């Protein structure tokens, strides 16, 4: 395959991937704690360089594709009044237990399951400093520092648990796992009590901007069309060259 066609095809595939991310982001505009996904396309120079390298070592192999990353900027807070809704005011992520290991989220629409555990909407256990958080009712009191007081004793002065929050020095590796969960980043640090800032009865909204997504959609569509025209122009140039060669 021609290097020019390989680069153009790779670029068009990246545009299609970006459109898929835009569709996913728009579908989750109202999902609490959702973090928008973005495809970071490789520059034209990088594509040419990688294409030349891959062609030399593996003829016909396409250049590298765009990298997908998660936009970790916080969303706006919304008051719900639900005792089990928690929003993180500042940095940090909740840690939850999944079948594949720990995952992280800012989606705080929790509930209490039949075993009395504090869990996510999908049923994964929310982790506290001592492990799973067990409650006797669905109306606990949770202070700003993540201390959980059981509803069975409204005058309790000692918390039954403290919600665990962590941050990451490098959020680049935090990819989406679905259902609002993120893979861990690098350099995990557990937040101390004074660094935890929670708002009970609130939810963090999605950080998706519909205007921004529509602009991205138009840019991707126009870029896709320009690559189509580039391929058509190249094909016509090759066809003309072949016909002229035949005349000779």
Protein described:
By secondary structure, the protein is an alpha+beta fold. The chain folds into 2 domains: 3-72 and 208-247, no CATH class; 77-204, no CATH class. Helices cover 31% and strands 25% of the residues. The protein contains 3 helices and 19 strands. The strands form 8 sheets. It has a 4-stranded antiparallel beta sheet, with no helix packed on it. Strand 15 (176-178) and strand 16 (181-182) form a beta hairpin. The radius of gyration is 25 Å and the shape is elongated. The chain starts with a helix and ends with a helix. The relative contact order is 0.18. Residues 55-63 have low confidence and may be disordered.
Note the main attributes of this structure.
248 residues, 2 domains, 4-stranded antiparallel sheet, 31% helix
Summarize the structure.
The protein is built from 3 helices and 19 strands. α1 packs across α2 (44-57). The chain is 31% helix and 25% strand.
Query: Helical segment tally?
Result: 3
Q: For the terminal residues, how far apart are their CA atoms?
A: 26 Å
Biggest beta sheet attributes = 4 strands, antiparallel
The residue-averaged pLDDT reads: 85
Write the SSE topology.
Elements: H1 3-27, E1 37-40, H2 44-57, E2 67-70, E3 77-79, E4 86-88, E5 93-98, E6 101-105, E7 111-112, E8 118-119, E9 127-128, E10 131-132, E11 141-142, E12 147-149, E13 161-162, E14 165-170, E15 176-178, E16 181-182, E17 186-190, E18 198-200, E19 202-204, H3 210-247
Antiparallel strand pairs: 1-2, 3-19, 4-18, 5-6, 5-14, 7-8, 9-10, 11-12, 12-13, 14-17, 15-16
């Amino acid at each position: 395959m021609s290097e020019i066609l390989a680069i153009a095809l790779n670029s068009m595939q990246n545009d299609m991937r970006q459109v898929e991310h835009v569709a996913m982001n728009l579908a989750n505009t109202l999902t609490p704690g959702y973090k928008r996904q973005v495809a970071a396309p490789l520059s034209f120079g990088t594509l040419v360089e990688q294409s030349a390298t891959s062609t030399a070592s593996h003829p016909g192999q396409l250049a590298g594709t765009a990298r997908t990353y998660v936009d970790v900027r916080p969303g706006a807070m919304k008051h719900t009044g639900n005792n089990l809704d928690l929003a993180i005011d500042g940095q940090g992520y909740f840690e939850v237990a999944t079948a594949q290991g720990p995952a992280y989220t800012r989606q705080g629409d929790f509930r209490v399951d039949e075993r009395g555990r504090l869990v996510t909407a999908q049923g994964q256990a929310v982790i506290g400093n001592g492990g799973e958080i067990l409650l006797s009712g669905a109306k606990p009191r949770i202070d700003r520092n993540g201390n959980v007081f059981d509803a069975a004793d409204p005058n309790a002065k000692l918390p039954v648990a403290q919600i665990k929050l962590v941050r990451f020095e490098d959020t680049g590796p935090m990819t989406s796992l679905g259902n609002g969960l993120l893979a861990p980043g690098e350099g995990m640090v557990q937040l101390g009590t004074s660094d935890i800032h929670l708002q009970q009865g609130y939810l963090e909204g999605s950080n998706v901007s519909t205007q921004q997504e529509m602009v991205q959609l138009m840019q991707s569509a126009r870029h896709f069309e320009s690559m189509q025209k580039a391929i058509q122009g190249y094909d016509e140039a090759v066809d003309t060259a072949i016909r002229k060669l035949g005349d000779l």
